[in-house]
Design goal:
- The structure is a homotetramer of 217-residue chains.
- In chain A, helix 5 runs parallel beside helix 6 and helix 7 packs parallel to helix 9.
- The first copy, chain A, is globular.
- The longest helix of chain A has 18 residues.
- The relative contact order of chain A is 0.15.
- Chain A contains nine helices and eight strands.
- In chain A, 40% of the residues lie in helices and 14% in strands.
- Chain A has a single domain, classed as Alpha-Beta Barrel (TIM Barrel), CATH 3.20.20.
- With 217 residues, chain A is α/β, with parallel strands linked by helices.
- In chain A, the strands form two sheets. Chain A has a five-stranded parallel beta sheet with strand order 3-4-5-6-7.
- Chains A and C meet through helix 4 and helix 5 of A and helix 4 and helix 5 of C.
């Protein structure tokens, strides 16, 4: 599985976001691989109506419906999305709130991807039984260092420790993935997919970038 | 002007939110009064495509586009909305962020409504020159007390002090409004409209409630 | 071990806090039981200089020293305290920050007590290997219900699951403890002590309340 | 007035903080100028007992005493401090909370210094009538640029606009001050003192640095 996080970039905004999602859909259909898109929250409706691949939310606020002006509830997101990122490095959450959201996703049938920053936090979050843990070692975030050339042991070690604690949790490699070669390596290290953003969103030719990425599966 | 804040209520979610917005549009057109709707953020796209009355956002995060996963930028909201609430009592903001957003709204041509909790804060925020200040005296929020029966002097005093400091700022009565009589009173006290939520969203018959409200204009 | 959280109550402020800490010291010495006090942060210095029992902090901010005006670093607290509460229900923290603080406490030789709100979160946090987990079932917080009369199975179950995951972690009963009888029950259920506040801080006669509590050990 | 913010630096921690405060006291007494120190919160007690110059807090949380574990109330700080910084650039606050704290400081007789980031925010905050506004133009924060060489018009303009709105508010220059020459210039531009940190705290010889600074008054 390849999860493409659109972040809040200008390149993934509104109609550009829709175009990007359409490209993801095209490559997914042609390659018969699973690609998930995470559009910007106000674009969830637009994108979900126009593409047939899974659409996930980038974030959900840990609150129930009611007098919560400006909050994003799971209930409002699920009209358009079938899963969500939780605790992304750009939107860290309290442990009690992560637990609340993972449980709520399970009750509502949404796929949960909890992002984590190191092995200890990955292990702790795996006990909450989200569908996925996306490990984002800070050493690899946003840089040019790829998981193939640097620290493969962090990924491998994380996968082993997570699986030992909770075999039901699947692991995504959440940083250091730029190319099909990186995807291949990430899968060899035991992950079940990758979560990435700039490698696609900021690519000069997103379709070409995606084709390269899926070639690694 | 009547601004209807949909909050994060189940009654204003997804298709229900669209139905509610359609009712607002109908009453606005028939009465030839201005009604603005503030749908839940993920529903902005859905609602804005289907109604011709102004659609405002409930909140915008004080950040520019970029690596801001899960944040709601003005840039993403403006595809669907022509204005926004800022600093609602359920989403209070830092003063530096309110200033940043009011200025950004001005630059992008969005209408800004800054909510405030007392006279001192109203006066301070009026210096930032938002389009509107919505005064929400805590004494009146969420209760059954209406501005017609209680504390009309708070509203009158706020309007005078805001106008003295910055005559360009328009004032909305943001609490204690349930009926057309309340709207009438709010306008007599010097405000240029009302901001309300439960009086419409939670009404057994929202259309009837809205007709009553516009009758006060 | 009995940990007395002074909270931010007027009854535990400044000189009153010192008097309260002196009472805790007296009862600890007479009963030869371990009592730990958690004064208000500005009183840490005052209290730590005057009592010989352990003094813990109520909270530490997850930041290193530097340009952090108004933040409470571990480095500033350790002049006066030998341990700290982390993630108290009134000061919930991000999972990444809890992990950072538990590790930092270990490196600096401070005792860490991580507060948790339910079994899942307790299990997750036990993997971070704090010295103590203080379980605070929301059902028991602040109410008159005591752990002896209600939900003993929650406490027992939490202890078992935490110990299974990480036998090195000790467990405190963090809610529902008012009397020596409750302390006795909490220990029977497998905990190694209690964390309490109002039962002592708000007691008409704190010394009497403490004597009763230690009688349960 | 020279206000020295100790921040959370290692150079101002515990006993080092006390030594620094003693140096400030010495220079203040010799020069007969007013120097205020803002130690780290856990050191407020230590420093306030040992020096006779005014001791201010770096921050206060906008809450009343009670069940507020880990929060810093005004009530707990006033045992040791006679004033406080509010809304420092490293601890920005909500407008409603700034208003609450300024009013509370007034009621309790504490001196309030509200930090602001630009002219608009300075003007807005001046309406809340704090004792001081410390203007911190982001252009000048933390850099080597001093107010004497760069942007004196920002400071002059801020002072004029603040005084016009609320003549009772005094203005401090909160950035770009390193030397006595800068202090002199800041006073010429209409401010009534300076707020600074690294220029003293990180100085090789803080006493020499302070002597130079007071020479500008």
């Amino acid at each position: 599985m390849i999860v493409v996080n659109f972040k809040a970039c200008v390149e993934s905004l509104g109609k550009k976001g829709l175009t990007l999602a359409k490209i993801c859909e095209k490559v997914a259909q042609e390659s018969k691989k699973e690609i998930v898109v995470c559009p910007q929250t106000p674009d969830l409706c637009l994108v979900s109506k126009e593409v047939s691949i899974p659409v996930f939310s980038q974030h959900i606020d840990p609150v129930d419906p009611g007098s919560r002006t400006g909050h994003i509830t799971l209930e409002s997101v699920r009209s358009y999305a079938t899963g969500t990122l939780i605790n992304h490095s750009e939107k860290r959450m309290k442990i009690a709130d992560i637990e609340y959201l993972v449980k709520k996703c399970r009750n509502f049938g949404l796929t949960s991807i909890v992002c984590t920053n190191n092995i200890e936090v990955s292990m702790a979050c795996s006990l909450l039984t989200p569908d996925y843990i996306a490990i984002e070692p800070p050493e690899l975030i946003g840089g040019d260092i790829s998981v193939t050339s640097a620290s493969p042991e962090i990924v491998e070690d994380s996968v082993k420790k997570i699986k030992k604690i909770n075999p039901r949790v699947k692991v995504l490699c959440g940083a250091g993935v730029k190319t099909g070669k990186d995807v291949k390596k990430a899968l060899e290290l035991g992950t079940e997919g990758v979560l990435l953003a700039s490698g696609v969103v900021k690519a000069e030719d997103p379709e070409k970038a995606l084709r390269d990425l899926v070639s690694g599966i």
